[in-house]
Amino acid sequence: MTKEKIITKDLTIGEVVQKHPEIIPVLMEHGIHCVGCHVAAFESLGQGFAGHGYSEKQVEEIIEKLNEAVKKEKNKK
């Protein structure tokens, strides 16, 4: 598990995607296709996942996957 949380559910989708484009496949895998949508600038990850029917527990699990993707990308550099 990732101890350092770079990504939290309170960050906007647009902000996170801009800083960490490597998370896009994880978002798409979970049905969050609004990475380029105008709402992405205002909607948090937590709101986006809740809007797609994910439970709080599922949101935390996906946020963990997003952080793992960022960590993996950092380790490549």
Keywords, separated by commas or semicolons:
mainly alpha; 4 helices; 53% helix; 77 residues
Question: Can you describe this structure?
Answer:
This protein has 77 residues and is mainly α. The protein has one domain. It is built from 4 helices and no strands. The longest helix has 21 residues, at 56-76. The model has no long low-confidence stretch (mean pLDDT 87).
Secondary structure topology:
Blueprint: H1 13-19, H2 24-29, H3 45-51, H4 56-76
Main β-sheet, in a few words?
none
Q: What is the number of E strands? A: 0
Strand content: under 5%
Mean pLDDT: 87
Shape: globular
Give a short synopsis of this structure.
This protein is an all-alpha fold. It has helices at residues 13-19, 24-29, 45-51, 56-76.
